[in-house]
Fold this sequence. Notes:
The chain is of the alpha+beta class. Among the domains are: about 5-100, no CATH class; about 135-395, Amidase signature (AS) enzymes (Alpha-Beta Complex), CATH 3.90.1300.10. Helix content is about 40%, strand content about 10%. It contains 20 helices and 17 strands. Strand 8 (about 300-305) and strand 9 (about 305-310) form a beta hairpin. The chain is globular, with a radius of gyration of 27 Å. The N and C termini lie far apart (about 60 Å).
Amino acid sequence: MLDRRHFISVCSGFGLTGTLFPGTLWALAEQKEAGQKTPEPKGPAQKDAVQKSAEQKAVITREMIDHAAAIADVHILDEYKDMMLDSLNGYAKGYEAIYALHIPNQVAPALIFDPVPPGMKLNTRRQPMQYSGMLTVDARKVPVSGDKAHAPAVHANATPKNIEDVAFYSVLDLAMLLMTRKISSTALSEMYLERLKRYDPTLKFVITLTEDRALAKAKEADREIVAGKYRGPLHGLPWGAKDLLAVKGYRTTWGAGGFEDQTIDEDATVVQRLDAAGAVLVAKLTLGALAQGDKWFGGMTRNPWNTAQGSSGSSAGSSSATSAGCVAFAIGSETLGSISSPSTRCGVTGLRPTFGRVPRTGAMALSWTMDKLGVLCRAVEDCAIVLSAIYGPDGHDRTVRDAAFNWDAGLDWRTLRVGYLKKDFELPPKPPEAQTSQSEDEKKLAPEEQEKRRKQREQDKAENDRARLRLEYDQRFNDAALAKLRSMGVNLIALELPDLPYTAMRAILLAEAAAAFDDLTRSGRDKLLTQQSKDDWPNTFRAARFIPAVEYIQANRARMMAIEAWAKLFDQVDVIVAPTGTTQLVATNLTGHPAVILPNGFRGEDAPVPHVRENGDLEPGGPGTPVSLTFLGGLYDEAKLLILAKAYQDATDFHLQHPKLGG
């Protein structure tokens, strides 16, 4: 029989670009060999001879090149094919040598993505953080400026009667209680650990509790605070980490089957920095397998607002646990919606920082040019506080710029130029009805296949109709958001999304993700992943091998055009307001711009009832569930972005509503 592994390595060198997926060629080679009977080998010598013979027969024919060329959308003249065939084995030797290195996931390519367009200058001067309240500890005062009308609800004399009363407090509120010693870090950590244990059976948001580590850190924080050695507003606050961050002494599973017992003997940079700030890690939280969706090897993480529904992903546990009042804040990550989507679903405030703002050292790599670590909190200022502790170069992640983040809660947001994506806020025209009758070609199929296609058409139509109903219902929240901003005195400037093929540029993510987990695909261990549909990573990684290197480069050139086009938008405004789930989500993840996602209201009892899909998942939306609004900022300009988002949040108070959890 053919040696598939050897064949794959040979084919990996095939093509004008060296990246054509060899599946078609493999299938053809297998078909060709099917009619050739090989005698059963007897003894080691004959087995070796048969193996060598099989390897020699695993060659590409001219006809096979035609099939692969069609996949790559190139035409190859006959006179070139023999030259290509002669080159294949030479290519394969080089690729085999690279495969033999078994390159770890954390090794980044030598190519560095930089979203900053030519001529843009970054501010590197750091200034003291300015919060919206007065922080005190003992007789020492930490000066804080800001709008007193929006100061935290908690004061130095507000000792909670029950520690669980503070479960949904903001980071700043909790910080004030800890600094004034009205609560202890140990009591707070024990409370959140107990809530994590209580609600995890329902919400499935914990992969590993870090209880021993947490209690040791909490006791240390208490001793330091009593001694007046105050580290800042995160000192003693319990938090949760998306389980793609390495933590020494604990497993780092990436949420994926086959990685359940993986350990990485280091602390991620973000973990180190939060340790230095005195924060207390209480849990490693769920993510969809290899950062896709909300399904992991232990089940599906649930939405606290509707536990029949997934939390969305991939920062599934980080959003669900924050929403459920089981951590003070959480760290998540986004490559293409993994903070935005679960923040929306679970009604929390998410910050996706500028690409290159926060070091990813010690975090699982999915796409080296798109991965971003961010924050999930209950309030905008919480995000600013956490970002201030984790940003900046670490000497390892070479994408991180030395750009200052200077939070000032007293900044007058009324001076900002604010744009909005006009078409994104308008209800799109209703699409034409899809064809429901049989085509002439379909009538020629077997009756069973005709029936299968008929049912699929009906299902597609029903799902599209339900999606349209949700869209029409949710339009009221878009209209209300713009009206609220205008009532606040914001002069909204209408903008158009730069017209570029953003969806086509997703090839960048797919190619990089396939490379990050290439060994998983080539070894066949991808079958251990829980999800195996056509839209899940195993199939996506395989399909990504069809992407030629030339097209990957071309997509990056188009990306540069997008960066330049968005730079022109931010020449006109400081902040852009947009609905969360529109094309801007893909666009700004490609351009590296920061975003804040806020809860923006809750659907009423008259909302369309979600339908259970064929795979058993409940559709998004439904009565009582949250909706969101997104604020976009200029590169490395999170301070302006956050101050406007805070003003809107203070004016609406949607973030103060919490899910009702039983138990």
